[in-house]
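thread: overnight batch results

M.L. [08:02]
morning all. the overnight job finished for the chain we discussed friday. pasting input first so we're all looking at the same thing
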Amino acid sequence: MDFESLFSIAPLSWSAIGTAILTGTIIGLERQLRGKPVGIRTSSLIVFGTYVFMTLSIQVTNDAADPSRIIGQIVTGIGFLGAGVMLSKEGVVVGVTSAATIWSLAAIGVCILIAGEFIAIKLAVVVVAILYGVDILEGYSTSFTRGVHSKYSNWRKRG
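M.L. [08:03]
and the structure it wrote out:
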């Protein structure tokens, strides 16, 4: 066994795995710094796992193999993870943004393989821009903080 084969993870790519961890960290850091569910570890593992499933599904070669079916199964499975972070407190559903973030993380994992690593990094930045940008907009206008989006709703005062 030579040195190169010792570190080979073919058909996976170290570069793509690094991208998965980087993109998960970019998004997870924003979530973790704000005390939200789905921090750095979870985000990185979601992107990493999605990338691995996609890469390995492409390696299956037979008449029944269809990598697009794996994408569909990832979307469904990720829905269960998302449902796990949503709660209902006093008639208000919380955790929907974290659930949507989980879905975006899985999409980025698929993107690493299909669209490329650099595009996946750009998409991670877009996700953080949305997560952080809406908070900035809420600071400028009360129109963004009505109803369930109020930062001072009853359930938050008690919790």
